[in-house]
Amino acid sequence: xxxxxxxxxxxxxxxxxxxxxxxxxxxxxxxxxxxxxxxxxxxxxxxxxxxxxxxxxxxxxxxxxxxxxxx
Length: 71
Known about the structure:
Elements: H1 7-11, E1 20-23, H2 38-41, E2 42-45, H3 47-53, H4 62-68
Antiparallel strand pairs: 1-2
């Protein structure tokens, strides 16, 4: 969702169908009773982008991280 990194393209078969997921709502802020809707609540991101999203106390939005990428 951010940089387009594909683990399989870089690592071969071991990277097939591998990705991190980012919770749009911080897990720490979610109450005890909460059912995650994968379509609404999660976004696939590579490990590097996920780390950058969480570099601030208030996570960066995916669109903010997209604007930071130097191509």
